[in-house]
Design brief:
Length: about 260
């Protein structure tokens, strides 16, 4: 069927309807960095959505400098939320599957704060998307387990239990179909690399989604990332035994969730 604690990456409490603050959200990926000013009470981007290519090589100082340049083009207070493509523990980068390995072991919060000149709150990028979908989107009010899967340069994932986030679950790192990591075959990057059409790729990720269903038995799976813009082109290929829906916030979910983290 289709259908904070500073720097530690912990989600902030759910927002009261009375909150009307705006915050900058940053979504850093393996191929692009997106930024926007977000109305965190409504979960909408209220500025121009800025995007630049992720520096290559994506070394810490190059990415931090590029992120600082984006933030200076926006006006959103003294706290910035960043979604980052890594497992994050107490502000420290633990993995580097789609970024330069020089990040591993470094305190990204300190580096970004120096480059931006503001307090930074950092979280895994797919976890940021899951927070946004739980607050404003396709996971809002859904009981039980909801798995948010973002297909991009890699495969990101955020797991929610009754709306609460279980951080740093990396489903793209599963071994599946004899492939490790699974994202090497099932990511959007793999679709482009192999020149698959949307039907071919949709059939492929249907197998991955069914595997995730067998592991978590979730109430629903939410599909996000850049491919969410093309939902109508591949959603008909998904044949799972649970609702599989498009991320309501599409490719803005990561930066919206990061902005919410900054409140």
């Amino acid at each position: 069927m289709t259908e904070g604690t500073r720097g530690c990456g912990q989600p902030s409490p759910l927002l009261s309807p009375a909150v009307s603050r705006n915050r900058i959200g940053i979504d850093i990926g393996g191929s692009g960095i997106k930024a926007g000013l977000v109305d965190v009470a409504k979960g909408v981007v209220i500025s121009e959505r800025l995007r630049i290519e992720t520096p290559q090589p994506s070394t810490p100082h190059a990415v931090a400098r590029a992120t600082g340049d984006l933030v200076r083009d926006l006006d959103g207070g003294d706290v910035v939320g960043i979604g980052f493509p890594s497992i994050i523990r107490d502000g420290v980068v633990m993995t580097a599957n789609n970024i330069d390995e020089a990040w591993i072991g470094g305190n990204a919060v300190e580096l970004f704060e120096e480059a931006i000149g503001s307090e930074v709150r950092l979280i895994n990028d797919a976890d940021a998307a899951a927070l946004a979908e739980a607050e404003f989107g396709s996971a809002k009010g859904i009981p039980g387990t909801v798995v948010v899967i973002t297909f991009g340069t890699g495969i990101g994932s955020g797991v929610l239990l009754d709306g609460k986030l279980l951080r740093n679950v990396e489903l793209g790192m599963l071994e599946f179909g004899g492939v490790y990591p699974a994202e090497a075959k099932y990511s959007a990057k793999a679709r482009r690399r192999e020149d698959l059409d949307w039907d071919e790729w949709g059939g492929r990720i249907n197998d991955f989604i069914r595997h995730v269903d067998r592991i978590f038995s979730p109430t629903r799976i939410v599909v996000g990332g850049g491919v969410s813009r093309h939902w109508e082109e591949f959603s008909h290929t998904i044949d799972a035994d649970l609702p599989v829906v498009r991320a309501a916030l599409a490719n803005d979910a990561g930066l919206i969730g990061a902005a919410v983290l900054a409140t």
